Structure formats: structure tokens, C-alpha cells
């Protein structure tokens, strides 16, 4: 027979499963947050008793003090763009005496929910959030209702009135399409990204606007969805180029997908920069080092991170002004990967 010491401790996740709510809701309900309905708070307390969970109110009371810690949640730790963004944010926060907890959601809302709950339990003073796809406004509002300020970084949640700092995705995508059209391209694909990503929605919108301004129709077949990985970029490019009426150019969701698209184009028998053009987004270091060098939209990720940190610091210091959205300009950097001219486009099979 196990002694009480040997028994595994119940966790917030156990309470959440028993009550049928999220772990973030459990955390706030046990703090008597007015954001959580009284009936839900009572259900959570009953569930906590049922699973033997003991809430440490002494530890929870530390939330009223400054911990000088901040949570930074990103969606893809392997993407150099987020490394640069995190570097800018961390440098600004460190300059003001804050320690940064960096967490990678992997673009999973379930994982993100657990990470946010953990950050709240550890008493962070604020959160910088690059939201996972399909994040709801309710999740972020639950955080802010507990008194912890949130600033969205690089991505935003639809329908949420909250501070945000990010690039001008729409205008940058329009600029990229205009450039490709000026080279003679008329069938331009938009490769990758997932449906729930605000960055994809904005870039896709700018891409379509660019086509429309030049009298070109968009085709859903030329806008394939996929998780933003290099491997998927290669697979989608090859798939498009081996299909009837292939595109002569592609604007990719981000540089990692674009680097994959370079490989996929070669596998499909194309010569990038001659009979097929590729444009990326982000301008990571590898973009200039690829062969051919990648034309891409330059986004100043460090500045985005730094400005988001400054906004969060102001909120943590008591700034209660209306939510602010800061848009950082982006611009096209032309390199060899989009060198296809009108004559090359006209000679591409399927045109």
C-alpha cells in the first residue's frame, strides 16, 4: 500500500479534465477571477476536491508582486525569423531588468494553452505572444482579465482588441506580386502556410490584391496549404510544376518554404531564375546564401521583437491607454531567384 508521500500529486490538468474546462480556466477559477462565471468556479473547486488537488494560495498571492519575468511564446523555434525576433525582445527586456522565459508552441493551441497556464502559475508580469493558428480571442482575454498584460507579436488573433506589433504583410506581398508581373509572369502561385495563421491570411490578401491590380485572377489550385516547413515547400513546388498549366513563379509563405521550393523546382526540371521564379518572406540569413540567392521580403524581426517588448514594459508599468497596433514596414530584396524575364515565362510549358 502506497503512503501519502508516494501518491502522485494531482495537477491542474487533472482538475481541467474532471471539470471539462481548459487549464487556463482552472488557474483563474481557483484565484476567484471575476472573468470566470461563478457556476464554473464552483465546478472547478468541486473537481479540485474530487481529484485531491491542493491550491497553494500563498504562492498565488505572489502575483500581486513583480516577479521581473516575462513569457515569450513563439510558434516555431527552428525558424531563424523567430530567433531574431526573440533576440530583439530579450535584449530590450534584459536592459530593463526582466528575465525572459522562451517557450515554443509548435503552432499547437493545446500546447500553447498549457504553456500559458504554466507562465501564469509562475507569476510572470507579462506575456509576448505569437499566437498559434486558430487561437481564440477568449484565451487571450482570459489572460488579460487576470491582470497580466499581453502584446501580440508578428501574428494576431481575429476579433481581439489587444496590443500588437508586426510587419506590413499585405503591402509587402502586393509589392512582390507587382515585381513578378513586371518580369512577365501571369501564373503566380502562393505556396504554403496554414489556414489559421493571421500572417498567411494577410500575405494571401496582399497577393490577391496584387494579382487583381494587374488584371489577373487568382486560382485556389495555385494557393496550396501546408504546414510551413522546408520539406513541404519542396513538395508543393514540385506538385504545382508537374501539374497541367503550371505557374511560372511562386510567392512563398516564408523563406524556409521558399528554400524548399528552390529544391522542388529543380526536381521538377526547372532552372530557378530562368524559367521559374521564387520569392520568399522574412529575409533570414540563409536567403542570401542559397543558390540562386533568394529574392525575399525583408522583415526586421529584431525591431518587431524590441518594439513589442517596449509596449509590454509600458503596460506592466501601468499604461492603460487604448490598445495600439504598430505595423513595421517591410520591403522586397531582389536577388537571383526571380530573374525570369517575360520571354522565359512565355516559353514555359503550359502557357
Labels describing this entry:
351 residues; 14 helices; 11 strands; 434 Repressor (Amino-terminal Domain); alpha/beta; disordered N terminus; Rossmann fold; 6-stranded parallel β-sheet; single chain; 5-stranded mixed β-sheet; 14% strand
Per DSSP, the total helix count is: 14
Range of strand content: 5-15%
Radius of gyration: 23 Å
Structural class: alpha/beta
CATH superfamily annotation of the domain at 169-299 and 332-346: Response regulator
Order of helices and strands: HHHHEHEHEHEEHEHHEHEHEHEEH
- According to CATH, what is the topology of the domain at 169-299 and 332-346? Rossmann fold
* Total E-strand runs: 11
CATH class of the domain at 169-299 and 332-346: Alpha Beta
Mean of the pLDDT scores? 90
Helix % is 40-55%
Gap between N and C termini = 77 Å
Strand order of the largest sheet: 2-1-3-4-5-10
Shape verdict = elongated
How do the helices and strands line up, and which of them pair or pack?
Blueprint: H1 12-19, H2 23-29, H3 38-51, H4 57-60, E1 69-74, H5 80-95, E2 99-104, H6 109-121, E3 126-129, H7 137-145, E4 150-153, E5 164-167, H8 169-182, E6 188-191, H9 198-213, H10 230-241, E7 249-252, H11 255-267, E8 277-282, H12 285-289, E9 295-298, H13 301-316, E10 325-328, E11 331-333, H14 342-346
Parallel strand pairs: 1-2, 1-3, 3-4, 4-5, 5-10, 6-7, 7-8, 8-9
Antiparallel strand pairs: 9-11
GO molecular function: DNA-binding transcription factor activity; transcription cis-regulatory region binding
Protein name: LacI family DNA-binding transcriptional regulator
InterPro entries: HTH_LacI (IPR000843), LacI/GalR-like_sensor (IPR046335), Lambda_DNA-bd_dom_sf (IPR010982), Peripla_BP_I (IPR028082)
Amino acid at each position: 500500500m502506497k503512503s501519502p508521500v508516494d501518491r502522485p500529486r494531482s495537477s491542474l490538468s487533472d482538475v481541467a479534465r474532471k471539470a471539462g474546462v481548459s487549464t487556463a480556466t482552472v488557474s483563474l477559477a481557483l484565484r476567484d477571477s471575476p472573468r470566470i462565471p461563478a457556476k464554473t468556479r464552483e465546478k472547478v473547486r468541486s473537481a479540485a476536491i474530487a481529484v485531491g488537488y491542493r491550491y497553494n494560495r500563498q504562492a498565488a498571492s505572489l502575483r500581486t508582486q513583480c516577479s521581473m519575468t516575462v513569457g515569450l511564446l513563439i510558434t516555431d523555434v527552428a525558424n531563424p525569423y523567430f530567433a531574431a525576433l526573440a533576440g530583439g525582445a530579450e535584449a530590450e527586456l534584459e536592459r530593463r531588468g526582466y528575465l525572459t522565459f522562451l517557450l515554443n508552441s509548435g503552432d499547437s493551441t493545446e500546447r500553447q494553452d498549457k504553456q500559458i497556464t504554466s507562465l501564469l502559475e509562475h507569476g510572470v508580469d507579462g506575456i509576448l505572444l505569437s499566437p498559434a493558428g486558430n487561437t481564440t480571442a477568449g484565451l487571450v482575454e482570459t489572460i488579460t482579465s487576470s491582470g497580466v498584460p499581453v502584446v501580440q507579436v508578428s501574428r494576431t488573433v481575429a476579433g481581439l482588441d489587444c496590443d500588437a506589433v508586426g510587419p506590413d504583410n499585405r503591402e509587402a506581398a502586393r509589392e512582390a506580386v507587382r515585381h513578378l508581373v513586371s518580369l512577365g509572369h501571369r501564373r503566380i502561385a502562393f505556396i504554403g502556410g496554414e489556414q489559421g495563421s493571421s500572417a498567411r491570411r494577410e500575405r494571401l490578401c496582399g497577393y490577391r490584391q496584387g494579382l487583381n491590380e494587374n488584371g489577373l485572377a487568382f486560382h485556389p489550385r495555385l494557393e496550396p496549404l501546408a504546414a510551413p516547413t522546408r520539406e513541404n515547400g519542396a513538395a508543393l513546388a514540385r506538385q504545382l510544376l508537374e501539374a497541367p498549366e503550371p505557374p511560372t513563379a511562386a510567392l512563398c509563405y516564408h523563406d524556409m518554404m521558399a528554400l524548399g521550393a528552390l529544391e522542388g523546382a529543380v526536381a521538377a526540371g526547372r532552372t530557378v531564375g530562368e524559367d521559374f521564379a521564387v520569392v520568399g518572406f522574412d529575409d533570414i540569413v540563409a536567403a542570401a546564401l542559397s543558390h540562386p540567392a533568394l529574392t525575399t521580403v525583408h522583415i526586421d524581426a529584431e525591431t518587431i521583437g524590441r518594439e513589442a517588448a517596449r509596449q509590454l514594459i509600458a503596460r506592466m508599468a501601468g499604461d492603460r491607454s487604448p490598445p495600439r497596433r504598430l505595423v513595421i514596414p517591410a520591403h522586397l530584396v531582389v536577388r537571383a531567384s526571380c530573374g525570369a524575364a517575360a520571354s522565359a515565362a512565355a516559353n514555359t510549358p503550359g502557357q
